[in-house]
Amino acid sequence: MELSEQEYHHFRDLIAERAGLYFDPAKQDLLTSNLLKRMEDCGLSTFTDYFQLLCSPAGTKEFDHLLNLITIPETYFFRDQAQFMALKRFVIPELLKRKSHPALPLRIWSAGCSTGEEPYTIAMILAEGIPGVVSSPTHILATDVNHAALEGARRGIYGARSVRDVPEEYLNRFFTQKGGEYHLDESIKQMVEFRHFNLVSESYPPLEISGWDIIFCRNVTIYFKPESTRRVIHNLYKSLKEGGYLFAGFSESLRYVSNEFDTVQVGGVFLYQKGAPQKRQPRKARQTRRLRRLTSPLERKPRIRSVSGKEAKETQKLCSRAKEFLEIGQPEKASELLTPYLDKSTAPESVFLLLAEIALNQGELEKAAQLCRKIIRHQPLSHGGHFLLGIVYWSWEDERRAIEAFEKVLSLKPEHALARFNLGDLYSQAGQLAKAKLEYTNAMRLLKEVPDSFDEWFAGGFSPALLIDTCLSRLRTLDSEQ
User: Domains of the chain: which residue ranges?
Assistant: First the structure.
């Protein structure tokens, strides 16, 4: 059975309305296969009948079954180890020292916890203790919209793939291997409270889900519609205490989502902190800094029609206006301005790059990839097109192709510091520490010595000085690991 365009829109919009999850056209086949599985279990033969069931008063339980099927992302213990090292070495010690009384609990919320690997990783770090830091009572809440995932988390039994990045000392201390399974120690399981919670559709109780010191919400909002993401991030901001930290996933930049947080570099990673109101930078100042880059047009090659004179000014004006919409959280209006260029193979490269950036920040990764490939097809030497394509591959967790894309950027522009920085992160994740150290060192040298090496267009609002500090932190971490 094939899902018609109208049926696809009905199911897509219903899921988005109730759960905030957005199935773009690239995921239509995945949605269809999951619908067919549930239809078979319900004994229904048409998509129309199944949709009517979901919309009926008796459809609430069935919608939960469908949600359990479509929201089981891959996760594992110590995913993105750099963030957990920053949590252990910097964030927790800082927050404990700031507490007015040692008896006050440290409150941590893992939002979108899936099968529990993330909150249990946090619990193991706390259980191990931090040298020189006085411990405090801890409350770890883990929530998810998927009932089946929560049940699996409460059992605390995992396969080899889930524990592949667990340091040996943690594996030996907190797990018992039984056949091909790893059973988590009961003491760690008791540290985490699991609860069903829908980040999009449920209200955030002021007494239960507020006043958190730390919130982890990683690789969750990439499945939401932009307006849902903005609402969720705002609610998370309100739920944090002053000075509290939000840990987000790599592909979940808040650049176009919220200006409420301060972006800070902690232990070599970028985190979002709820600072005092007077410390937060007004959005207007941020816009001025970022829009300044648009006064210099991107390089153009013969395969994409070059523009000059009046047309060049009109293109710059168009991009500037689109950027303004993007900066104030209205990507739809930015896209509307630029969409007419999609059918023009001779449009300026800057227009296509901006469209790809809009798609990337809205979580429309397939659309962003298509735009990048179109740029590269008409302009093979476009380092911007290859760079954004590398970001897309990284968001898809396709590290091999991400590395190839960033290496292509360097073959076109060897002094591209951001590409070297990203390669350093990718090599570090892959365990190629010598290569990682080389790329961090080169990126740091370029940022200090070659002004043209810093491409503000792709910097996400970060300064060269902040990236240099991050390179230094990454190198210190790698030295300690070796």
Answer: 5-70, 81-279, 303-374, 382-482
User: Please, what CATH class does the domain formed by 382-482 belong to?
Assistant: mainly alpha
By CB neighbour count within 10 A (0-12 exposed, 13-18 middle, 19+ buried), where does 241 fall? middle
Distance CA 463, CA 466 (A): 5
Q: Closest by alpha carbon to 184, among 101, 125, 234, 120?
A: 120
Q: Which long-range contacts (CB under 8 A, 24 or more apart) does 70-73 make?
A: 70/15, 70/21, 70/23, 70/30, 70/31, 70/34, 71/19, 71/21, 71/144, 71/145, 71/146, 71/149, 71/223, 72/114, 72/115, 72/146, 72/148, 72/149, 73/114, 73/219
Q: Which CATH superfamily is domain 81-279 in?
A: Vaccinia Virus protein VP39 (3.40.50.150)
Alpha helices in 365-429 (DSSP H): 365-378, 383-395, 399-412, 417-429
Structure tokens at 445: 């040298």
Asked whether residue 132 carries a pLDDT value surpassing 80, the answer given is no
Contact 201, 19 (CB under 8 A): yes
| Cβ neighbours around 19 below 10 Å, total | 23
CA dihedral (54, 55, 58, 64) in degrees, to 10, reads 40
Q: How confident is the model at residue 459 (pLDDT cuts 50, 70, 90)?
A: low
Give the angle 233-237-243 at the CA atoms, nearest 5°: 140
What is the band of 155 on the pLDDT scale with cuts at 50, 70, 90? very high
Give the DSSP H/E element, type plus range, for residue 39.
helix 28-42
Burial of 399 (0-12, 13-18, 19+ CB in 10 A): middle
